[in-house]
Design a protein that fits this description.
alpha+beta; two-stranded antiparallel ribbon; 5 helices; about 65% helix
């Protein structure tokens, strides 16, 4: 089966590519997903991209934010779209 356009885009997506769109992702979350999720997301920073998966870093003292971000599937889906 031939790779789809989404597969190719995912495979070639770099951290620099994601960092360019990150401000608009955060703005989208603020306006369309909600202020609580926006407040959590502001504390995360993209640090790596591998096989189309973005890894975020949250400061070590932000345990609550990290747990909330890890558990929020709706936020993950919003970022992925």
């Amino acid at each position: 089966m031939a790779p789809t356009t989404a597969d190719v885009a995912r495979a070639t997506f770099s951290l620099a590519d994601f960092e360019r769109v990150w401000p608009s992702v955060v703005a989208y979350v603020r306006t369309d997903v909600g202020p609580r999720r926006h407040a959590l997301l502001r504390e995360a920073a993209p640090v790596a991209v591998e096989d189309g998966m973005v890894t975020f870093e949250v400061a070590a003292h932000m345990h609550f934010h990290l747990e909330q971000l890890k558990a929020d599937r709706a936020l993950a889906d919003a970022i992925a779209s």
